[in-house]
Recover the amino acids of this structure.
């Protein structure tokens, strides 16, 4: 199978507002421009993936099942707006984890690149033609370590950034819809 470019996005404060270890569906709120950005990437024919540190699991603040329920809600809300999230990778590890199995170091917690490379292997993604967008330096470092082009999102308008990303890195895909 031929490898394709993709979009990798951080979750908290890139797609949804971070309320501090966000995991409750009742706390779900989009970041400005996120639904339109997801729709734009989807209409352009790009696979969209989420890569998210979820250290609250390791810290015992919420369960994997609670995180999955939140992510399912996020994906359903994205679909309402025309966006499609192909897959989500998460890291449950944290330096202050309550159990040794979830204590860092690990190679999946950003700035590590394992979440991106695992998704790339699973879905035949060309990382050198892909983009990672996140609100923290650790997101940028993870993307760079995986070989992606990277953008540090300033929180203002994800749709505006998505248009710039399409024009800069995905000109061939940009004509499929915008």
């Amino acid at each position: 199978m031929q490898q394709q470019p993709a979009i990798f996005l951080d979750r908290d404060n890139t797609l949804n507002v971070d309320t501090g270890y966000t995991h409750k569906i009742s706390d779900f709120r989009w970041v400005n421009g996120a639904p339109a950005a997801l729709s734009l990437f989807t209409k352009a024919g790009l696979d969209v993936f989420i890569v998210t540190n979820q250290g609250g699991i390791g810290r015992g603040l919420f369960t994997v099942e609670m995180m999955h329920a939140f992510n399912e809600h996020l994906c359903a809300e994205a679909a309402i707006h025309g966006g499609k999230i192909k897959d989500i990778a998460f890291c449950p590890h944290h330096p202050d984890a309550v159990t040794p199995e979830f204590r860092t170091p690990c190679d999946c917690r950003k700035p590590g690149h394992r979440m991106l490379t695992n998704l790339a292997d699973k879905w035949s993604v060309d990382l050198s033609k892909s983009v990672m967008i996140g609100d923290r330096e650790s997101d940028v470092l993870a993307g760079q370590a995986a070989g992606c082009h990277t953008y540090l999102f300033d929180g203002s308008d994800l749709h505006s950034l998505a248009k710039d990303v399409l024009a800069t890195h995905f000109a061939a895909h940009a004509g499929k819809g915008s």
